[in-house]
Amino acid sequence: MQVETKRLFLRDFVPEDASDLYEILGDEETMKYCEPAYDLAQTEKFLTDFCIGRHGGVAAVCRDSGKVIGYILFHEGEKGVYEIGWFFNRVYWGRGFAFEACRAVIDYAFCRMGAHKVFAETIDGGRSVRLMEKLGMKREGVQRSQVKNPAGQWADLYLYGMLREEKEGVQGAGMTHE
Predict the structure, then answer these.
(1) 33, 49, 53 from 57: Cα distances, Å
(2) For residues 164 and 176, what is the distance between their CA atoms, to the nearest angstrom?
(3) Residue of 75, 39, 40, 84 whose CA lies nearest to 56
(4) What pLDDT digit, counting tens, does each position of 37-56 carry?
């Protein structure tokens, strides 16, 4: 994937991204609603096996600095159904980068990949749910006490999705494709 937005390049990961990805996945606060923070070896394995080996994610690269500031989960499960998720370097939180990147990936899924649906799930009923709603995704349900959080406590799982016909009513992020 090669997508440009106003402030970001979205591209496939490369081995040289390990250090920047570790700044994201190695941060306890960033990983709070997913799993324990990764050490460098876990990050390198995830980068090699999943991000590069299985094309399971997209790097969000800041145009100004060339730094990878975000990891966007993006992969097809069922034919035409794509899952999206995100982790961003905490230094860049609150500036709209996650919205900009996710909006561009959703646009790409519908416009370039012919997606029928894009969905996301989270146990973070705050920031992540707000972003899903801002992206135009609709709540499809809440699975009560469905999964354990990193602290081992049961947590609700929030399910959100957007169908192709719903995408028509949501304004894009002004991206270009290569």
Answers:
(1) 18, 11, 10
(2) 19
(3) 75
(4) 999 999 999 999 999 999 99
The pTM is what?
0.89
In a domain, residue 41? The reply is yes
Residue 176 lies in a domain: no
Identify residue 171 by its one-letter amino acid code.
Answer: Q
Residue 79: which CATH number?
A: 3.40.630.30
Question: Which has the closest alpha carbon to 124: 92, 106, 98?
Answer: 98
> Is 175 inside a domain boundary?
no
Show the tokens assigned to 87. 């982790």
Q: What is the 3-state secondary structure (H, E, C) of the chain?
A: CEEECCCEEEEECCHHHHHHHHHHHCCCCCCCCCCCCCCHHHHHHHHHHHHHCCCCEEEEEECCCCCEEEEEEEEECCCCEEEEEEEECHHHCCCCHHHHHHHHHHHHHHHCCCCCEEEEEECCCCHHHHHHHHCCCEEEEEEEEEEECCCCCEEEEEEEEEEHHHHCCCCCCCCEEC
